[in-house]
Amino acid sequence: MELDLQITARNLKLPNYVRDAIHKKAEKLDKFYDRIMRCRVVVEVPHKHKKEGLLYNVRIDMKVPGAELVVKREPNEDLEIAVRDAFYAARRQLEDFVRKQRQDVKRHEEPPRAVITSLFPEKGYGFLTTIDNREIYFHKNSVLNHEFKKLKTGMEVRFVEESGEKGPQASTVTVI
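RESULT FIELD:
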């Protein structure tokens, strides 16, 4: 393991099996992303609670190229669970960091475009024609920002389609 791992225990004597578990979990992080330069794990018991008993805090600081990732979870009464949850959160942060580094950001597909072809303002509805020449019904309540009164035939819009009682309809319509 190339990883520079430092384990610190505050206000408690850390059992060897917990130290071993931390080493194994840190090795897994290092296998997932081998460019972690330093990993500090601090396990502490901040103070004793008369009602709640001992609570364990686990904090993980990871130094990676260009950033420092910090994980601090809610305290837990079970030391093993506190360690497990902290390393799970560290893995998630590392995954997000790698995704951003690769510029592999989730992209949401834009809603399709259409043109308003018919309007019936007095009745509160209209029709859109899509790029593939389908006709989609829309109601004035589906137009965002209460802009139904501003609509004109020929305007380009984005819409979200759903199945209506009499065929396809737009659940939302946004003027472009």
